[in-house]
Specification:
The complex is a heterodimer. By secondary structure, chain A is an alpha+beta fold. Chain A has 4 helices and 9 strands, in the order E-H-E-E-H-E-E-H-E-E-H-E-E. Chain A folds into 2 domains: 76 residues, Alpha-Beta Plaits, CATH 3.30.70.260; 74 residues, ACT-like. Chain A, domain 2 (Alpha-Beta Plaits, 2-Layer Sandwich), CATH 3.30.70. In chain A, 24% of the residues are buried. The relative contact order of chain B is 0.11. By secondary structure, chain B is α/β, with parallel strands linked by helices. The chains are: A alpha+beta, B alpha/beta.
């Protein structure tokens, strides 16, 4: 992998036909493309699905993935997204099993710090939803290990281009 | 709107596509389609004519796919093959993969278990769409009768547009059987898949400028030139530019190899001098080639100081194997060359390139690697040179895969368009013979010869039954070294002569094998014997198998060892 390797994003608009996801994953497997995450869901138009791929790759490899995905008959369009020019969000559900009751308040303040929400509670467990970019979620999950982390479910990133280029932080 | 069964809709749709012949094998899950085909008077054993609709019964579905492939390559039309579900369809896969790798347009129609049992591991059920997805441009599975005509129309549209590739239509048996009102669409549309646009004029200008400035240009033509039928255009371009033309193995025959500007094939078993000339060029115009490892050798050592221009119908080929093209153009080869011809126009008249052309001429001498078989054997290479002298330029030659195939690359000059077919991409042993039958069905008036090795021929020799029963006479020349010769050659060079699993022994007797099918069989040991056997074969109403014993020690030389740069050929 070359030095320009970094996280790259592809947003693809595809026909919602039987096997469409299979055709895409088949291509990825067949070409040995190393995809970090895939997230799919209905797009704004009936019958179309938007799929967001993220991959850690150099430009050449990324370009090949783009062209090959675009070559699939069921794919309407593909768009490369740069991390700095896109809004990227991922959602994770994190289940805690705090053990000692005393840790519950600690978890709640931890959750609040991350602007996450508690969405389910039982006598033994507590489930939190958190959304944000992948770094934020990684950090949250990392720290969760101190509070009795039990299970994690992540959606993978979804992304849309920003209409105005974002101001870069210094 | 017409009410008909799904099976009838298949046959009707195929006829609307102008299909005259189907290569296939029936079974439980495609019987309704076979029943619908039975309606046609010309269904069995008749030569093709304007109105005919013929079925050719293969003896193995892999052969059916290769026959369709050979038909497609010879005729420029879509080849159609059929198989039943399960093992019938899995047997097709090798043929589909072969066509996929060589960009040949075939449409496969498979029967599937009834839709209401799909997924239940029913008898002869396999996930054909799942399996075929990796080796086809698209795989359809119509689940309603009214979707059948659309699927067939779309299959032909996809198979023939942009980069030609195989398409599969998998039809559950209940869909074949039930009746519905159906409509046959004239056209289909896929929003992100349209025929290739005309070449970008700005890029064409850039390419012409580079070509005009070139002092030592070379054109590298691949299989894409043949698929786009750009033979005439390529020759015009080469002559206008006064540029020597090399081809990849798949491009062999894209340019007449007896033309003064032809340098033959480059690559692993290309001409040594041609390979060495490539890095001397200042501009290499690549048209319709993926620049595979077999063509370029180690890519990092491939013409490092040459400006490479890459034209291909598939955008994903640009930058895939060779990443440093100075200009690239995604376009149909024919249209691309036509635009270049227009753009170059008179700018090139009077171009002086005597020194370069003279230099190139030095390498046009065909590679001669004489093999001394101690007088007891004919040489494979010499046999193939004799066949070239014997056969008229319009004769069609197919090959199997192995040493004989590479000897053909080196010693069999291809002169006319659509006369040489080989499995270059997938390297499928057993391709040549059924492909020869398919080609003969397409061109009944042209002699068709399969140049084979003994190992490859045994993979699909049962197509002899098809050739006899369906009256499709071709000639098979078996270069018989009782070895899997190419593997043995590699074991000789790279594995210290440890001949593991390559000795085929004495069986079968190919003469008796041929005779047992009702074909002619003969064995020859000298060139005059071969010549008279070929003479008899050309006039025989049935297929002839000519067994040519050759030495198991004869090598294909020169060769480019794996991982070596294009200039580092081994000559002996």
């Amino acid at each position: 992998m070359n030095e320009d390797a970094r996280l790259r994003i592809i947003s693809a608009l595809v026909e919602n036909r039987p096997s469409v996801l299979y055709r895409i994953t088949n291509l990825i497997r067949r070409k040995s493309f190393n995809i970090e995450s895939i997230a799919a869901g209905p797009a704004e138009t009936l019958g179309l699905t938007r799929i967001t791929f993220t991959m850690f790759s150099d430009y050449n490899r990324f370009d090949q993935v783009m062209k090959n995905i675009d070559n699939l008959i069921d794919v309407r369009s593909v768009e490369p997204l740069e991390e700095r020019d896109a809004t990227i969000r991922e959602l994770a559900l994190v289940k805690f099993s705090p053990g000692a009751p005393a840790t519950r308040p600690e978890i709640m303040s931890f959750v609040e710090t991350f602007r996450a929400n508690i969405v389910d509670m039982s006598s033994d467990t507590l489930t939190v939803e958190i959304s944000g970019d992948s770094d934020k979620i990684n950090a949250f999950i990392d720290l969760s290990k101190n509070f009795g982390l039990k299970k994690v479910a992540r959606t993978g990133a979804v992304a849309l281009a920003r209409e105005m280029p974002a101001k870069r932080s210094q | 709107m017409t009410k008909m069964s799904g099976a009838q809709a298949v046959v009707e749709a195929l006829q609307r596509e102008g299909v005259k012949v189907v290569f296939g094998h029936p079974g439980g899950a495609n019987m309704p389609i076979y029943d619908a085909m039975y309606e046609f008077e010309s269904f069995r054993y008749t030569p093709l004519n304007e109105t005919s609709f013929r079925h050719v019964l293969a003896r193995h579905e892999q052969s059916a796919a290769h026959m369709a492939d050979g038909y497609a390559r010879a005729s420029g039309r879509v080849g159609v093959c059929m198989a039943t579900s399960g093992p019938g369809a899995t047997n097709l896969m090798t043929g589909l993969a072969t066509a996929y790798m060589d960009s040949s347009p075939i449409v496969a129609v498979t029967g599937q278990v009834p839709s209401y049992v799909i997924g239940s591991d029913a008898f002869q059920e396999t996930d054909v769409v799942g399996m075929a997805t990796s080796v086809t441009k698209y795989a359809f599975q119509p689940l309603r009768v009214r979707d059948v005509p659309y699927s067939i129309r779309a299959a032909f549209y996809l198979a023939t547009t942009r980069r030609p590739q195989p398409v599969l239509v998998d039809i559950p048996k209940d869909v074949q059987q039930s009746e519905e009102d159906v409509q046959f669409p004239e056209s289909v549309d896929f929003p992100n898949y349209r025929p290739l646009p005309d070449p970008d004029p700005m890029v064409v200008k850039t390419i012409s400028r580079a070509l005009l400035e070139a002092q030592r240009p070379v054109i590298l033509a691949g299989g894409g030139v043949k698929m786009a039928n750009a033979y005439v255009e390529l020759q015009a371009l080469a002559e206008l530019l006064v540029a020597p033309v090399v081809t990849s193995f798949m491009g062999k025959g894209a340019f007449p190899e007896n033309h003064p500007l032809s340098l033959g094939c480059m690559g692993m078993h290309g001409s040594e001098r041609t390979n060495k000339l490539i890095p001397e060029s200042d501009v290499l115009l690549v048209i319709g080639s993926r620049l595979s490892d077999r063509t370029t050798g180690k890519i990092e050592k491939f013409a490092p100081n040459t400006k490479i221009i890459h034209i291909d119908a598939d955008k994903a080929e640009i930058g895939k194997n060779y990443k440093l093209a100075v200009v690239s153009l995604v376009a149909d080869a024919k249209k691309a060359i036509q635009s270049l011809l227009l753009e170059l126009g008179v700018g090139l008249m009077g171009q002086q390139r005597d020194i370069w052309v003279k230099r190139a001429h030095e390498v046009t001498v065909m590679a001669k690697t004489e093999f001394d078989g101690n007088g007891s054997y004919l040489s494979g290479a010499e046999t193939i040179r004799m066949l070239r002298r014997f056969l008229p330029p319009k004769a069609i030659v197919t090959t199997e895969v192995g040493q004989h195939q590479m000897w053909c690359e080196q010693h069999f000059q291809v002169i006319e368009p659509r006369t040489f077919f080989s499995s270059g991409g997938l390297g499928t042993m057993g391709f040549g013979f059924p492909a020869a039958l398919g080609a003969k069905v397409a061109k009944p008036d042209v002699p068709v010869v399969d140049i084979a090795g003994d190992g490859s021929f045994l993979m699909t020799e049962n197509s002899l039954a098809t050739s006899i029963e369906e009256q499709i006479p071709v000639t098979v020349v078996v270069l018989n070294n009782r070895m899997l010769g190419m593997v043995a050659q590699w074991q000789r060079f790279f594995y210290n002569r440890r001949y593991s699993g390559v000795q085929l022994g004495k069986s079968p007797d190919f003469v008796k094998l041929a005779e047992s099918y009702g074909a002619e069989g003969t064995r020859v040991s000298t060139i005059p014997e071969l010549e008279s056997a070929m003479n008899r074969a050309m006039h025989s109403p049935v297929t002839t198998v000519i067994d040519v014993p050759i030495s198991p020690e004869e090598n294909v030389l020169p060769m480019l060892p794996p991982g070596a740069g294009i200039k580092e050929m081994v000559v002996g």
